[in-house]
């Protein structure tokens, strides 16, 4: 939108009072007249850039609010990872984030397996946070115990397909603590529905489990369980997470602290 037209062939120049940059264009010919248009000075450009950053931050926080199972997971970051976590696994996890566009394109997820308390959930949630920060993609962290509970509580009032879609439409889905849920026929069917939906949508999935990878690889007597494991092997790169049981360490520290207090 023009804000100034030359008068008697005299050209006036306008400058921002704060940054002193010119805020009008050179005269442009249009229909035998010369028009001058307003241009953005450094103040305006900086303000626009700050607003973009603010909007991006708000969008990422909205994604985080809908991502995690608990609020504590919002703060999980690679730089705060337990020092006992294998450095090689940490390096591979950060590389997964670094190359996530390629992983997403090829529908490659991760299977983080290892002993209880080794840091699998922390590592998976750190990946989630980094991907939200780096790419602003929608990430969701869920566990099957929670999913099965939601499906059962919803009963006939819940559209199950819509509920499954709400979980499986995320750019990255993290399924935590796979294997702790009840292995009923109904449970296995719902687990397969979620994992197969990710497979059909060609979207990457990260799974954490206390199961041994050899147990997942071997042939299963239960056909449905075999189909689930087959999908996981096809979709996920296995990474064994080795670390000291963080929960035992934290529990021991708390008990020692309490013991010292009552011994005063």
UniProtKB/TrEMBL annotation:
Q: Name one GO biological process term.
A: DNA replication
Matching entries from InterPro entries are given as: IstB_ATP-bd, P-loop_NTPase
Q: What is this protein called in UniProt?
A: ATP-binding protein
Matching NCBIfam families: PRK08116.1
Q: Which Pfam families match?
A: IstB_IS21
Per its UniProt record, what CDD domains does this chain match? AAA
- Top-rank taxon of the source lineage equals Bacteria
Bilayer-spanning residue ranges? none
Q: Which UniProt keywords apply?
A: ATP-binding, Nucleotide-binding
Q: Boundaries of each IstB-like ATP-binding domain copy?
A: 60-250
Record SUPFAM superfamilies = P-loop containing nucleoside triphosphate hydrolases (SSF52540)
Q: Which GO terms describe its molecular function?
A: ATP binding
